Amino acid sequence: MTAIALTIAGSDSGGGAGIQADLKTFSALAVYGASVVAALTAQNTLGVQGVMAVPPDFVAAQMESVFADLRVGAVKVGMLPTAEIIGAVAAGLHHHAGPPVVLDPVMVATSGDRLIAADAVARLRTELLPLATLVTPNVPEAAALLEAPVATSEDELEAQARRILALGARAVLAKGGHFSGPESADLLVTADGTSRFATARVATRNTHGTGCTLSAAIAAGLALGFTLEEAVAAGKRYLTEALRAADALAIGGGSGPVHHFFGWWR
In the annotation, is 175 catalytic? Predict the structure, then answer.
């Protein structure tokens, strides 16, 4: 049976993040990708020039169309710009419960541009976090979810991940890429303990879409039947190789995308 993953997120007109990155990642990992567009963005490697939210009822209609016909093996949820859209997605996931849900709490783009309304954060925290098999915040996103100071060490980040776990998510992958040092380490925190996934830090400015790519890769692994730990490890390996190959691309004048098809393009 063909493995299918669904992304519910915003579109990136520059092609490096959002739904475009998710679908590229699914394809590279031999998973069929379906999509629900929650927002349109005017963006490129230099930044985000505009965001237009899709009406919540049409987001819900897209979800219904996909679930009515496709056997979805995993769901990745990314940028949801408004509280009303978050409510529509939460309702749809409640109605079609079953597949594992990877929630990437996208709030700010790599460029620093804000992608989500301030009042949407509280609704994300209360309505979507409890539905997540895994939530994947980076350092500033973990702080924003908790309305807490930004962590300055792995110990502080792990403590924040445990607080996010207490909000209802079944597991938290706290991403430490914002820290300095020779390693880029992510912490998988569950009720059973903490696992550390570390790789050598890749020196490149082409990091556009890293968070989207990692969460999509984990969702692809879950759709293929991996355990959560296997999916996280495989996703981390995939992202690291996509970062290592990123400088082989010449895309735009700013922070370019990772190379999703490093294993295919020659």
Answer: yes
